[in-house]
UniProtKB/TrEMBL annotation:
Catalytic center residues: D187, H228, S419
Lineage, broadest ranks: Bacteria, Bacillati, Actinomycetota, Thermoleophilia, Solirubrobacterales
Keyword Calcium recorded: no
Family: Belongs to the peptidase S8 family.
Record protein name field: Protease
PROSITE patterns: SUBTILASE, SUBTILASE_ASP, SUBTILASE_HIS, SUBTILASE_SER, TAT
């Protein structure tokens, strides 16, 4: 019988996992229900989730007096505030006021630069099948090596991203596995260290884990309480040849864990904005945001829909930091092509057959796609790779844990979504930076341009709303000859 990887418990302590009640107090923001296409929150969880209409985010113009701020906030129904990102304030509303009305009232004030209802944030994961036990490391059940080769189609398959070739190019250039590059993971946290009931993932070496910040509970211990963030970190930087789990795209990069989502995968736009600025200030060179937003009416929105996040993205870009974002999992055309789409790299998801996945959001602002697993879409019915009536292709696999037991590390067989697609791009950027593919300090514009110029054209000829510039080709991004279209 195959067994899970279990981290040892050095001693027993009475240490309780932080509850939804405690977490809700730390979030103090717009928390919407559930993982995308996953079961709704339990009654206990829902009972502790703040009402989506109880927060507004506002930024006053420079020079506004405290008296003017107080008067404007009170007139709009704001009962108290706390700091947001980039000089913004997050307002808690009176019970008789909703966020849309309050934001509109504030926006009419001359002293206000902008005001918006807080957006909900959630993990951009389309499916979460039950976890199954799997053989650890790169040794298969039959004793042969190369277990990850059979499991990680996203790295080596016909419609994978060609990581073996990319790894060799990075090694020859002196940047093996993304060594020396710090990647920030904004998510539910990361299993980065042993602390209380939490254990470090055996596939994430301690020497490459950088303790970050927990913006949910307001401390410096960004331990994962859900498992999603650990999965994402593994996709980016899981160790190679260590006898555990899988392999990450940038298997020698450093991971900076920034917790902005709670144990249910929920959060708020202002925490995401704070997390981006923090990651930049802590020295991250690329930031992964496998998160999607929802507005006050529960409609899907991209990161750039929130003004405070736009400000944080500009802050990152001005300092040479690339931000990679999941396009979202509602299967709708919502990735805008407006002037601020360039602030982040928007990534859609593809299946094992090279078809855009049925959950993947599309639109003119989509930059490119990467493997996310799951079922084929019907958006391009004449695409020969797409078989929407066939069984789903394989999902993405990495080491993570169940939220109920953060000491038991397993390999789930069923994670799919643009959450899983984005880390492929993030890891490739880490390889490019370590290998100095574009020189010593390439701009985010140059990096995005390189990724799109070397992507494998899929779907209609040239860039389109479903695939963007095409499927990520890590090898071509690092200098190999690109693959032909299709």
């Amino acid at each position: 019988m195959l067994r899970p990887i279990r981290a040892p418990l050095p001693h027993r302590r009475r240490f309780r996992l932080r509850t939804a009640t405690a977490t809700a107090a730390g979030v103090a923001g717009l928390l919407l229900t559930g993982l995308a296409a996953a079961p709704a929150l339990s009654a206990a969880a829902a009972a502790t989730t703040p009402d989506p209409a109880t927060r507004v985010v506002v930024r006053f113009k420079h020079g506004t007096t405290p008296a003017a701020r107080t008067a404007a906030l009170a007139a709009a129904g704001v009962r108290s505030t706390f700091p947001g990102a980039g000089g913004a304030l997050v307002g808690r509303l009176r019970p008789d006021t909703d966020a849309t009305t309050a934001a509109a009232a504030l926006a009419r004030r001359r002293a206000v630069a902008w005001a918006t209802p807080a957006f909900g944030a959630r993990v951009a994961q389309a499916d979460q099948a039950p976890l199954v036990f799997d053989d650890p490391g790169t040794t298969g059940p039959d004793g042969t090596t190369g277990g990850w080769l059979r499991r990680q189609w996203d790295l080596t398959g016909a419609y994978g991203i060609r990581t073996p070739e990319a790894w060799e190019l990075a090694r020859k250039a002196g940047g093996e596995g993304g060594r020396g590059v710090t990647v920030a993971v904004l998510d539910t946290g990361v299993a980065y260290a042993d602390r209380g009931p939490y254990r470090r993932s055996p596939d994430l070496p301690a020497v490459r884990m950088v303790r970050g910040r927990d913006f949910v509970d307001g401390d410096d211990f960004s331990n994962d309480e859900d498992g999603h963030g650990t999965f994402i970190a593994g996709e980016i930087a899981a160790a190679a040849n260590n006898g555990y789990g899988m392999v990450g795209v940038a298997y020698a990069a450093k991971i900076l864990a920034v917790r902005v989502l709670d144990q249910f995968g929920q959060g708020s736009s202002f925490r995401v904005a704070q997390g981006i600025r923090y990651a930049v200030d802590r020295g991250a060179k690329v930031i992964n945001v496998s998160i999607q937003l929802t507005d006050q009416n529960h409609r899907p929105a991209t990161l750039t829909a929130a003004p405070d996040i736009r400000g944080a993205l500009r802050y990152a870009r001005q300092r040479g930091v690339s931000v990679v974002a999941a396009a979202g999992n509602d299967g709708v055309d919502t990735v805008p092509g407006r002037s601020y789409a360039w602030l982040s790299i928007q990534v859609g998801g593809t299946t094992e057959r090279g078809c855009v996945a049925d959950y993947s959001n599309t639109g003119p602002g989509l930059d490119l796609v990467a493997p996310g697993g799951g079922s084929d879409s019907r958006v391009q019915p004449d695409d020969p790779r797409c078989r929407p009536n066939a069984l789903p292709g394989r999902a993405i696999r990495q080491v993570t844990f169940r939220a109920a037991d953060p000491t038991r590390f397993l390999v789930p067989d069923g994670y799919a979504g643009t959450s899983m697609a984005a880390p492929h791009v993030t890891g490739t950027i880490a390889l490019m930076l370590a290998a100095r593919t574009l020189g010593e300090n390439p701009t985010p514009e140059a990096i995005a341009g390189r990724l799109k110029a070397t992507a494998r054209d899929l779907g209609y000829r040239g860039p389109d709303r479903s695939y963007g510039a095409g499927l990520l080709d890590a090898a071509a991004a690092l200098g190999a000859a690109p693959l032909p279209a299709g």
